[in-house]
Every structure is written in structure tokens, then in C-alpha cells.
Design brief:
- The protein has a domain of 59 residues.
- Helix 1 runs antiparallel to helix 2.
- The longest helix is centred in the N-terminal third of the chain and has 40 residues.
- The relative contact order is 0.13.
- The chain is mostly helical.
Amino acid sequence: MSQEFVMHLFREAFFTMLLLAAPVLTVSLVVGLLISVFQAATSVQEFTLTFVPKLVAVAAIIVIMLPWMMDLMVSFTTNLFAQIPALVK
């Protein structure tokens, strides 16, 4: 197992992790920003006002993006298992 192989493996794993987390984090960021603007405009400072919509939005985006996320994880795992014979050399 060479250093280049390990670096390639970590780079691929990191990129896959970023792709999986990006939709959830983006939706959470946008919803949080919209709620913050609403709270600043109306002077309503309620903690559940920020928590519940973010929770609903994140759950919705996970349900919507789950097939793509699963496909990405299966593809990464398949590629990882396909590279196992290269470790023996």
C-alpha cells in the first residue's frame, strides 16, 4: 500500500462525505438565515421558532435526497471494495 493510494483513498472519502453533507447543511443554513431575518424584522425571540422549521426542513431534504445519498454511498463502497486487490500487491 503506497502513500499515493492512501492519499487517493482519503481524498475520495472526504469528497464523498462533503457531497453527502452538502444538501443538509445548505438547507439548514438557508432556513436558519431566513428565520433569523424574520426574527430580526419582528423582534420575536423564540427558540422553538428556529428549531422546529430547521428540523422539518432537514428531515424533508433527507427524505428527498436519500436515494441519491444511498447511491453515492453504495458507489463509494463498491469502488473501495474493488480497490482491495491493489492492497495485496
